[in-house]
Design a protein that fits this description.
Elements: E1 10-12, E2 19-21, H1 22-26, E3 30-36, H2 45-56, E4 61-67, H3 78-88, H4 108-117, E5 127-130, E6 136-139, H5 148-160
Parallel strand pairs: 3-4
Antiparallel strand pairs: 1-2, 3-5, 5-6
């Protein structure tokens, strides 16, 4: 199975020393990659993201969360971020180490997402849908996890797998 370039990275899990090779773990799946924050007006989207993950994970969807302090709304303590995700929002989808998502310091994966779509995260909870064949679509923060177009694109990708 081929691996889209955007997945050719190893990332550390949130509040852990464990690393994940994104290609070996997620190639061939439909992915929703999201830059998250703990103290943002959009933080409640964790609930919708978890609902999406729960509903579609058995069909091949994985949500990948990347906390970012680029907009000054993330805790410096990874343990507190993990606690908020797990205890407050019941997040079961994979969360990774805090990541810069914009500007000169942007993580290479987020640079690739930005280059592929022409859209850098302008705020927290930007979403990038990555299909198994590597097509990438951007959805801004205001697009909620229950948005009809996002759901339609997810189900189309899942049915094409």
């Amino acid at each position: 199975m081929s691996c889209p370039s955007v997945l050719k990275f190893v990332k550390r899990k949130l509040n852990s020393q464990e690393t994940v090779n994104l290609c070996s773990e997620y190639a061939g799946q439909t992915l929703l990659i999201v830059n998250t924050a703990s103290y943002c007006g959009f933080t409640k989207q964790f609930e919708g993201l978890e609902a999406l993950y729960s509903e579609y994970k058995d069909e091949g969807l994985t949500v990948l969360g990347f906390p970012s302090h680029d907009f000054n709304q993330e805790d410096a303590d990874e343990g507190k971020t993990a606690e908020l995700c797990e205890l407050t929002y019941g997040v079961q989808f994979p969360m990774f180490e805090p990541t810069s998502v914009k500007g000169d310091d942007a993580d290479p994966m987020f640079r690739m997402l930005t280059n592929a779509t022409g859209e850098a995260p302008s705020w927290n909870f930007n979403k990038y849908l990555v299909t198994p064949d590597g097509q990438i679509t951007h959805y801004p923060s205001r697009v909620t996890p229950s948005d009809a177009k996002l759901l339609s694109d997810i189900t189309a990708s899942l049915s094409a797998e």
